[in-house]
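Take a look at the protein record below and flag anything odd:
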Amino acid sequence: MKKSRSRRKTIILGLVIGLLVVVVALIALSFYGKTMMKKIPALSFAEALDYTLKDNPEAIITVGFVKDGQASYTVYGNNSALLAPVPHTYEIGSLTKTITSAMVAKAVQEGNVRLDDTIDAYIALPSGNTYPTIGELVTHTSSYKPHYFEWPMVGNFFSRDNDFYGITTAMLARRLSSLSVSSKRGTYEYSNFGYAVLGLVLQELYDTEYATLVDAFVRDDLSLRHTYISTMSGDLDNAWDWKRGDAYLSAGGLVSNIEDMLAYAQLQLAGQGFIGASQESLKQIDAATQQFELLDIHPDAIAMAWMWDEQNGMFWHNGATSHYNSYLAFDPVRQMAVVILSNLSPNSRIPATVLGIKLMKELQLF
């Protein structure tokens, strides 16, 4: 009996000590993270890139920019080694939203959609609910949450990185049928769900699944030959699983390479046709945080999907999946742009967004 009690005490003590070790480790990591965060603003672009790539053998970061009408790029690897200029395929995550918004802008230009229309003008939904407008979805001001729970998320939690895998447009439509926009309508809240709804609007409008629509759009309208819905067939590892009919493809399902993204940036600088970012269409938002301010990230306003940074005079958007992160920014006055494509998690050291801001500000000085 005494041995049993002694054993229980030993086990309990071990659990307590183990818990304390975890807590201390988390506190130490948090302290380390905050310490490093304070150092980031003082780093140059080259120093930030070197830190991100130091002793990081899996890393492949492609850095491109457009200046004086010319586009160029460099591929970096472990310890900032210069690699062969291969246009690797990267997941671009939420940069997909800027292409979805361009598809919406084209539909507006062709007279097929009005930004002031509510979504029930295009999707068969129950009466009695209050629905957002197309314009509110495009600017993340619909009051829809970032996402809503669906049962495939349970299996995805255990078996894959992509939470949105297997969430169908039928599930999305059922969820929409149960929602009314809230009193927060008009207030900015970033919403993957909202962009999934935009994909459904386009699908209903053209009677064609979003994946087929966007593949044709980037090929025929944007002349991008290496941007498409992910098939997990790229030359870099750890891509997300997707199904062609998944509802959230329009929020983050595209892959691309540096050549296409630089060409896409040049389209933004030219501002032709249905490219949606313009200062005339800006909607002011309140999305700044203390951490954003520290890292010089300024989401001051939004034009279609593009964020406007008033202080640095540029439009921008970023993207992230589990093992990739990306950033594209363009300065329409100085006619320059920056693209960063990374096969690292956005939580791995310094993300593409911060690297891109540093590079853009350095380019703006010359």
About this structure: The two ends are 80 Å apart (CA to CA). Residues 18-32 have pLDDT under 50 and may be disordered. Residues 16 and 167 are 41 Å apart (CA to CA). The chain has two domains: 2-42, 46-364.
